[in-house]
Amino acid sequence: RPFRSLKLWTAMRAHGAQAFREAITRDIELARELAGLVRRAPSLELMLGEPELSTVPFRRLPSHGDIDEHNMRLARALQEDGRVYVTSAVIDGRACLRPCIVNFRTTREDIQALVEITEHVGRRLDQQGAA
After folding, report:
1. I need a labelling partner for 87 at 20 to 30 A (CA). Which of 4, 73, 74, 113 fits?
2. What contacts 43, CB < 8 A, 6 or more positions away?
3. Neighbours of 106 (CB within 10 A)
4. CA-to-CA distance for 57 and 97, rounded, in angstroms?
5. pLDDT tens-digit map of 55-86
6. pLDDT at position 131, please?
7. pTM assigned to the model
């Protein structure tokens, strides 16, 4: 049988449990910061309450048209843009963006950029839809 836990075991031996605790805590703090930025952005809507883990589902409210369709298009457009990577998800029948912070290189500046780029690309989609 494969030794599936070898990578985790090796990382724990090399870095220790405290390093894992600190990384998880940092990711959750960044997720909460992202949630705060989303709450303050008039065209963004947080899908759930305060993040308990590192996933922060939110959606953009377009100036016109179907919200779910806009967010599915927005997720694809953000991936094509390439500056940030988020996937789409459906929560309670509503489409949204689903960023998940797990990379140790993620910074507060990256979180801010995610919100700014989402707004920029979303406005571009609004303009394309209006044309």
Report:
1. 4
2. 60, 61, 62, 119, 122
3. 18
4. 6
5. 999 999 999 999 999 999 999 999 999 999 99
6. 57
7. 0.89
Q: Which uninterrupted H or E stretch holds 79?
A: helix 67-81
- The dihedral region occupied by 122, where left means phi > 0, alpha psi between -120 and 50, and beta the remainder, is alpha
CA-based torsion, 90, 91, 97, 99: positive or negative: negative
Bridge partners (DSSP) of residue 113 are none
How far apart are the C-alpha atoms of 78 and 91, rounded to whole Å?
Answer: 19
Q: Residue count of the chain, please give it.
A: 131
- What is the token pair recorded at 118? 């989402």
Neighbours of 56 (CB within 10 A): 28
42: its two tokens = 């008039």
